[in-house]
């Protein structure tokens, strides 16, 4: 007969089984033949003898059909990670901001890293991602190189013709100081 354990007292080692038609049978731990320990909600099969249940064991469950696991749940499948070359490209392009003279060199290295990152991503998209990082690094390298080029070719501000005059100096001494500075410089 089939039923379900509705209660089991660990201290008394006694439990109660209820059948689908509402009948209740008591059983002891000595009558338990199932897997593990009996507990409420366990589906069981037993032999009824009066109001007692004998040979109580877990009810066999029908075999379930195998379902394929989704790709993300498979143990061997990993989520794609950012390509290291893409991250390096962004870092090198940002470093170009801090080195005025070497900015074109940093820009060229960043572009090479970005191109290698794009190559890695195209070759194995299931393993790598970060295409946006590569394009941002290329754009940033171009902007940094352009800005460093503009700053390097900017005309230098003219030398100041301002001369500090000490109190009590005359205009003649001022002109001689300017003339001596221009001949030295």
SSE run: EEEEEEHHEHH
Number of domains: 2
Q: Helical stretch count?
A: 4
**Average of per-residue pLDDT values:** 81
Number of strands: 7
Uncertain regions: pLDDT < 50 for 5+ in a row?
none
Strand content: 15-25%
Radius of gyration of CA atoms, rounded to a whole number:
43 Å
**What is the first-to-last residue Cα distance?**
114 Å
Give the helix proportion (percent range).
25-40%
* Outline: rod-shaped
Strands ordered across the widest β-sheet:
3-2-1-4-5
**Subunit arrangement of the protein:** single chain
Q: From the helix content, strand content and strand pairing, which structural class follows?
A: alpha+beta
Largest sheet: 5 strands, antiparallel
If you had to describe this structure to a student in words, what would you say it looks like?
The chain has 185 residues and is α+β, with helices and mostly antiparallel strands. It is built from four helices and seven strands; from the N terminus they run ββββββααβαα. The strands form two sheets. It has a five-stranded antiparallel beta sheet with strand order 3-2-1-4-5, with no helix packed on it. A two-stranded parallel ribbon has the order 6-7. The N and C termini lie far apart (114 Å). The mean pLDDT is 81.
